[in-house]
Specification:
Layout lengths: L1 E2 L8 E2 H28 L1 H12 L3 H29 L1 H18 L6 H15 L2 H10 L4 H11 L2 H19 L8 H23 L12 H16 L8 H4 L1 H30 L5 H29 L4 H17 L5 H22 L1 H6 L2 H16 L1 H16 L2 H19 L4 H4 L5 H7 L11
Helix pairs in contact: 1-4, 1-8, 1-9, 2-9, 3-4, 3-5, 3-6, 3-17, 4-5, 4-9, 6-7, 6-17, 7-13, 8-9, 8-13, 12-13, 12-14, 12-15, 12-17, 12-18, 12-19, 13-15, 14-15, 14-19, 18-19
């Protein structure tokens, strides 16, 4: 693929240019998002020492964990709209610094009230971060490139799953009662500080967009911007508020909720299912729990390559999501460690692939402030699964006396989400294989359904 250049200059090789942009931006964003996941979920490990030390009940812990999602839901849309207005460099840096400070603050919690306050503030601080990464990718990469980019960014999730719990266990064991702090306090301090440092680095390292990239030549900027401008020209103008009243956006909210239900169900219950398979050692449970995340990396990358190569988007979400639901269901009905690991690995891989490729759908039909607000709304509704998914499983477990009923209930939501994906009009989200011809020829696609 080549792009236009100014008169007298050499043509721009866009494929090579996109590779350079990817290597410059994406590894840093992966590391940032990995620490976001670690700082969000390290409370699950910290509770092992924190609850006995402070005398907190499981009810206090559960309520506090849920307060995160309330803060996240309330501020995700405003945060992403601000990012679109002031620029990703300043706002992503602000988000990381503020959530790092709040995360460190957990080390000094002494009462349930302040535990609730800090969990809420952590949600407020982190709100807009992942939605901002999805939006930021649209500032640099056209639709035919985003499948692979979103897959790369989502590598942060399995990496956090592989590193987070083992790192937390090592910190809590090695630094317990060191310098007057318990291990759980050291955990919050040690894992919160990198986010603050990365936030300050982002203020210098990140670039708001193509026009501000000093490391690109004028010809390269022009070629990149021409690709994005041609893509935006194919989208009808819309008001900022249109994303709130769009049936298509709310359909995507439901799909995202189903995907997030899979993610949180696996995150919260994988150790329990491994324990139910006969593993009793916490160390072994932690190691076995890391296997699904590690194996999921390859299908995650392959799906991104396949989606961009074929230009197909919906089936790259629907099939892995339905398979994730079926694998999770099978994991509850068969005994044995090998079966549990295989099923959990398939479910985890399916959920990761579905999540990474899902974000191609809203990015294909939303633009400008509509993209900023719509992506944030979809992400906010999706993250409500983090509040409701454990509640649904817990309620059904209490009512039936078995975890099986709860997980099967979540399985139904997951499979329904896969089927709903196929209701998204294909012509709105699929990209032709020869994307260069589409952009050069100015071919447009009808998107009147967005407001219908």
């Amino acid at each position: 693929m080549s792009g236009a250049a100014s008169e007298g200059s050499l043509p721009v090789d866009l494929n090579q240019l996109y590779r350079r942009i990817t290597w410059r931006l994406i590894p840093f964003l992966i590391v940032c998002y990995m620490f976001a996941v670690i700082d969000r979920l390290n409370i699950a490990m910290a509770k092992l020492q924190m609850l006995p030390a402070l005398g907190f009940s499981e009810a206090v812990y559960g309520l506090g964990a849920g307060f995160f999602f309330i803060g996240y839901l309330l501020f995700d849309i405003p945060s992403n709209l601000i990012l679109h207005r002031v620029g990703a460099r300043w706002w992503i840096g602000r988000i990381m610094i503020s959530w790092g400070v709040v995360s460190v603050g957990f080390a000094f919690v002494t009462t349930p009230f302040w535990f609730y306050v800090l969990r809420f503030l952590l949600g407020v601080a982190e709100a807009g971060f992942f939605a901002g990464l999805v939006l930021y990718a649209t500032y640099w990469f056209p639709a035919p490139k985003r499948g692979g980019i979103y897959a790369l960014i989502l590598l942060a999730v399995p990496l956090a799953g592989m590193l987070g719990n083992p790192l937390a266990g090592w910190i809590m064991t090695s630094f317990h009662n060191a310098g007057g702090f318990d291990g759980w306090q050291r955990l919050f301090i040690i894992e919160g500080l990198p986010s603050i440092v990365l936030g300050f680095i982002s203020l210098v390292f990140l670039t708001n967009g193509i026009s501000e990239a000093s490391w690109l030549t004028p010809a390269e900027k022009a070629a990149l911007q021409a690709e994005l401008d041609a893509e935006e020209a194919a989208k009808p103008p819309s008001r900022t508020i249109d994303f709130v009243i769009s049936p298509l956006v709310w359909l995507m909210c439901a799909i995202c909720f189903a995907i997030s239900s899979a993610m949180y169900a696996l995150g919260f219950w994988t150790p329990s299912l491994i324990q139910a398979a006969g593993v009793t050692s916490p160390v072994q449970i932690g190691l076995y729990s890391a296997i699904p995340s590690a194996v999921a990396i390859l299908p995650l990358l392959f799906a991104g390559w396949s989606a961009d190569r074929t230009g197909e988007r919906r089936w790259h979400v629907a099939v892995p999501l339905i398979l994730a639901g079926l694998a999770l269901a099978i994991s509850t009905t068969h005994d044995g460690l090998a079966t549990a690991i295989i099923c959990l690995t398939l479910a985890t891989a399916g959920a990761y692939v579905a999540l990474s490729q899902f974000w191609n759908l809203p990015a294909a039909v939303l633009s400008g402030y509509g993209a900023a607000g719509g992506i944030a709304l979809i992400n906010s509704i999706g993250n409500l699964a983090g509040f409701f998914s454990p509640s649904i499983i817990g309620y059904l477990k209490t009512a039936t006396g078995s975890i099986t009923a709860g997980l099967l209930g979540i399985t139904a939501i997951i499979i329904l989400g896969g089927l709903l994906t196929l209701a998204v009009p294909r012509r709105l989200v699929d990209t032709p294989r020869n994307a260069e011809s589409r952009l050069a020829g100015g071919t447009t696609r009808t998107r009147h359904e967005l407001a219908s």
